[in-house]
Amino acid sequence: MEEKRKKIEVCFTPGEYNYFKDEFEIVVVIDVLRATTAICAAFDNGIKSIIPVPTLEDALEYKKKGFLVGAERKGQIVEGFDFGNSPYSYMKEEFRGKEVVLTTTNGTKSIAAAKDADTVVIGALVNLDAMVDWLIKQNKNTLCLCSGWQDKFNLEDTICAGAISDALIATGDFTSIEDSSIAAKYLYQSAKDNYMGYLKSSSHRRRLRNLNLNKDVIYCLTPNTSNAIPILRDGKLYNQ
Ligand code: 3SL
Question: Dihedral through CA 89, CA 94, CA 95, CA 99, nearest 10?
Fold first, then answer.
């Protein structure tokens, strides 16, 4: 019998994306700590568009042309740029209605990896329910692409991907077969009642805590504060 349900699968890192691509119309790029959360926050705070770029060299080119440019590497603002990757950096009047450029250690690299998919959207815990509702309406084969950390697996993105796939599968209109998706679902189910506690000793939470960025972590791990659905069109992110 022909399978009518759409696929929802999870790819743990951008390095594995080649094994999944071409099978999915929609790719949800996830970088909970902090790039995709910051992107949602930017749209919640009235930003017009974001140009995500993978390298510092690309970012510098835009800076020379007079753009407002954010750049983060290893959790810190790169010297010479206007801001970094904190969701709080967008909560300023000066960003309203503006177009900005952003490069981050992993998140913008994942966006670049996925850019040839039919549709690329930005997912995080902050826009979890909004994203799930939107994906249900689209009813297309969907891949959650976790950004991880420098092509290594991370817990927070996988948990978010598991939350999305769990909700889509519960509708009865989606199915998954990959072990990565099953693992993501189980991790989400173990973590869902206390993300902060579950991720206490995760590597990036530790990294951000050492940089005194715990306030950002709390923001990023608080689900459903945003209705943003950032979507990539012609190399720029807009709120759909
Ligand atoms: O990896 C990334 O893209 C960033 O989100 C990392 S950080 O949270 O800004 O350190």
Answer: -130
pTM recorded for the entire structure: 0.97
In a domain, 235, yes or no: no
Residue 147 lies in a domain: yes
Output the CA 23–ligand 1 centroid distance in Å.
27
Q: Tell me: the pLDDT tens digits for 107-124?
A: 999 999 999 999 999 999
**Does 75 contact ligand 1 (Cβ within 6 A)?**
yes
Structural domains of the chain, count: 1
Question: Is residue 126 included in any domain, yes or no?
Answer: yes
pLDDT tens-digit series, residues 64-84: 999 999 999 989 999 999 999
For ligand 1, mutation pick of 204, 206, 210 (most atoms within 8 Å of CB): 204
Residues of the domain holding 64: 2-228
Q: How far is the CA of 25 from the centre of ligand 1 (A)?
A: 26
Q: Where residue 151 sits, what CATH number does that domain have?
A: 3.90.1560.10
